[in-house]
């Protein structure tokens, strides 16, 4: 199964797996699942690290990127089509990073692993239990 991880799930998977549900943990550990992360998530998280808003022990942007890579995800570039699709989404969610992630999931028909209940208002499959 393909899974698109939102920013929080990526962060928890790499740094704080105790925040994950049992189902999320099992999905992330299953080698049959292909894990994807949007460049929007990387941009959001590295921006927070760079501004000192996301304090992770000994973490730099380079260190975080290495941990994300080591986790075994495939990165999904932000295409112009994703930006246009995000702009056309209903405004249930105001976070631009999440809107791009949702647009990517819709366009590529990939379920999103997220704890954000707002994602359920969009035409995407949301996994979190």
What does this structure look like?
The chain has 129 residues and is of the alpha/beta class. It is built from 6 helices and 5 strands. The protein has a 5-stranded parallel β-sheet with strand order 3-2-1-4-5. Helix 1 crosses helix 3, helix 3 runs antiparallel to helix 6 and helix 5 packs across helix 6. The model has no long low-confidence stretch (mean pLDDT 92).
Structural topology:
Elements: E1 2-5, H1 7-15, H2 22-29, E2 34-38, H3 39-50, H4 61-71, E3 74-76, H5 80-88, H6 96-108, E4 112-113, E5 126-127
Parallel strand pairs: 1-2, 1-4, 2-3, 4-5
Helix pairs in contact: 1-3, 3-6, 5-6
Give a brief rundown of this model.
The protein is an alpha/beta fold and 129 residues long. It is built from 6 helices and 5 strands; from the N terminus they run βααβααβααββ. The chain has a single domain, classed as Rossmann fold.
Q: Any descriptors?
A:
alpha/beta, 129 residues, Rossmann fold
Write down the CATH topology: Rossmann fold
Q: Per the principal axes of the C-alpha atoms, what is the gross shape?
A: globular
| β-strand amount | 5-15%
What is the CATH homologous superfamily assignment? 5'-nuclease
Radius of gyration: 14 Å
**How do the strands of the widest beta sheet line up side by side?**
3-2-1-4-5
Q: What does the main sheet amount to?
A: 5 strands, parallel
Taking pLDDT < 50 over at least 5 consecutive residues as the criterion, the unreliable ranges are none
Number of helices, counting only DSSP H or I runs of 4 residues or more: 6
CATH architecture level-2 label: 3-Layer(aba) Sandwich
Approximately how much helix is present in the residues? 40-55%
> What's the number of structural domains?
1
CATH class: Alpha Beta
Which series of helices and strands comes N to C? EHHEHHEHHEE
pLDDT averaged residue by residue: 92
- Classification by helices and strands: alpha/beta
Number of beta-strand segments: 5
């Amino acid at each position: 199964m393909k899974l698109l991880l939102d920013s929080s799930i990526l962060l928890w998977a790499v740094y704080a797996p105790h925040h994950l549900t049992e189902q999320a943990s099992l999905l992330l550990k299953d080698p049959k699942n292909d894990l994807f992360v949007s460049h929007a998530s990387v941009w959001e998280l590295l921006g927070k690290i760079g501004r000192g808003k996301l304090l992770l022990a000994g973490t730099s942007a380079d260190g975080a990127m290495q941990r994300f890579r080591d986790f075994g995800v495939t990165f999904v570039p932000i295409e112009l089509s994703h930006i246009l699709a995000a702009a056309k989404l209903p405004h249930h969610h105001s976070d631009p990073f999440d809107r791009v992630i949702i647009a990517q999931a819709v366009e590529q028909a990939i379920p999103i692993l997220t704890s954000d209940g707002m994602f359920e208002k969009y035409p995407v499959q949301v996994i979190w239990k």
